[in-house]
Structures are given as C-alpha cells and as structure tokens.
Amino acid sequence: MKLLICISVTSLLSICCTAQTDSLATSADSTKAKSTITFGTVYCTNADYYGQAANEKLSYLAAAVSYHHKSGLYLTGLAYRILSDTTNQIASAENISAGIEFNISKRLSADISYNHTFYPAGSPFLQAGNPDNASATLAYDAWVKPSISVDYAFGKTSDLFATAALGKTIALGSISKKDLLRIAPAISVVGGTQKYYQTYVTQKKLADSLLGIIFPTTPGQGTGNSSYTKTISSFNLLSYNFKMPLDYYRANYVVEASCQLSMPAKNAQAGSGKLNSFFSVSFYYQL
C-alpha cells in the first residue's frame, strides 16, 4: 500500500502497463519494454488509509498522470477533490511521486518510491499530518503473488507501516479479439504505528470547534495520557483487508470497478471493530 486513498501509484502503474501487453498478447512487440504516459480518473466512495477511514465519509474524485520510462523509472502526479469540500480550492489534495521498478530475478521484483502530498490547512484526510512517504515493495510473481511493503510516513510526526499481501490474477476471457476481462482478488494484513492519529484528532477538534461541533473522543485519548501515547507509538496490527477489482482491458485503456472490505484491528484508533467498505470506479488511458 502506498498512498492508500483507493488509488495508489503502484496500482496505476501495474494496471496500465499491462493494458497493452496482456490484452494484445499475440503481438510480439507488445512484450517489449517501452516508455509510456498514462492518464487516469477515479471515483471512490471513501478515503482509505491502511484499511482505516476518517470520522467523516470522504467520497472523492481523482485525476492522475504518470510517466513510466522503459528503464523502470516513473513520475506520477495526482489531484483529489472531496465531493463534500465546500472551499473554493479546485483540489482537496495534490500528490507527486517518483520511483523505480526493477527485477531482481525472473520472478522477484522490487519497487522503491517517494511521494509528497500537499494538504491544505484543516484537511479532513486521516493522514494529513504526515505528507511525506518513502516506500519499498518486494513481490514474487508465481501462481499466486505474495508481496511485502514497508512505508515510512513523516511530517508533523513519523510512522512506520508494513503490509503483507497475497494476490491472484484470474483471466475471465474476452468479449472480442482485442479485449480482456480480469479479476485480481487480494488479501492483506497491515501493521504500523499510529502517531498520525493524534495529529488528526488535534486538527479535527480545532476544525470542528470553529464550526461549533463537538468532536467525539474515546476515553483515555490525549497527549497527556502516557498509556495512549505508548499505544499510538507501538507497532501493532492495524487492519485486515480484502480487495476485489474487475478490470476490462483494451489496447490503450483500462476500466476498473473495485470493492475493498477492511476490518480495523483491535488496536486501531480509527474505527476499531467497524467494517469499512470502499468502492471505486477507474478509467486509465495509456499513450
């Protein structure tokens, strides 16, 4: 998991880079590495941060553009607009990312990236206090695809996350000779620290107080509570996740509908014990 607002840089690259190779696998040239530019749009019913969600529902639209060099280097830009955002700003958040994908062996691959998100003051995103993220992922491409990712998020605080995932891509067939239907079910377990949540609570209280809203808190929360401080600083399980995307591939574009169910773990500060659901519809076009 990288940016984890239903759309991720890794997903953008992996979906789009296979759009030309897999849907037209009969072409010998389609398997040759080449540089590409990809444009994408996404609608998502809520913002996802490692299987957790903010107190308020954050449905949003996102637009993305990515340049992927044949060497594996890539640059990506994302912009988000929360549908309930009442400010005059065009975007509710913007993100830039740079990274590199490379093969270690025939089946083992790696991805190393860094991204920064620009959040306006009073942003409702759960992770707004940590706008910077450095990430590394290892994936093994076999009958099933296990992967492990480590993310270091930092800004007003700093947090460490680890994600273990297992996925399987299943071809469902074609409607015509130039398309392909796929599903790619995946399960994952996320662990990490939660100092970002204290920043979220502080900023949320301030924003709500200006509107005369009382922010609901859990007994024992607060910067002066040593037990709470220890809890958010400790590395604990955060969520259990299941994701089911359905992809329709053509030569130059991909349409995806995806549903994710996430159960925050017992020690998760954001919505522990409450099942979160995230549904998204995406469109990607590759040059």
Give an account of the 3D structure.
The chain is mainly beta. The chain has three helices and 14 strands. It has a twelve-stranded antiparallel beta barrel. Strand 2 and strand 3 (73-82) form a beta hairpin. The longest helix is centred in the C-terminal third of the chain and has 16 residues, at 195-210. The radius of gyration is 19 Å and the shape is globular. It starts with 8 loop residues before the first helix and ends with a strand. Mean pLDDT is 86; it is low at 1-6 and 19-30.
Could you name the key traits of this structure?
287 residues, twelve-stranded antiparallel β-barrel, globular, disordered N terminus
Ends distance: 26 Å
Number of alpha- plus pi-helical segments: 3
The chain-level mean pLDDT equals: 86
Number of strands: 14
Q: What is the H-and-E element order? A: HEEEEEEEEEEEHHEEE
* Sheet with the most strands, sense and barrel status: 12 strands, antiparallel, barrel
Give a short overview.
The chain has 287 residues and is mainly beta. The chain is built from three helices and 14 strands. Helices cover 14% and strands 46% of the residues.
Write the layout of secondary structure elements.
Elements: H1 9-23, E1 36-44, E2 60-68, E3 73-82, E4 93-103, E5 108-118, E6 132-140, E7 145-154, E8 158-167, E9 170-173, E10 180-183, E11 186-192, H2 195-210, H3 226-233, E12 236-249, E13 253-264, E14 276-286
Antiparallel strand pairs: 1-2, 1-14, 2-3, 3-4, 4-5, 5-6, 6-7, 7-8, 8-11, 9-10, 10-12, 11-12, 12-13, 13-14
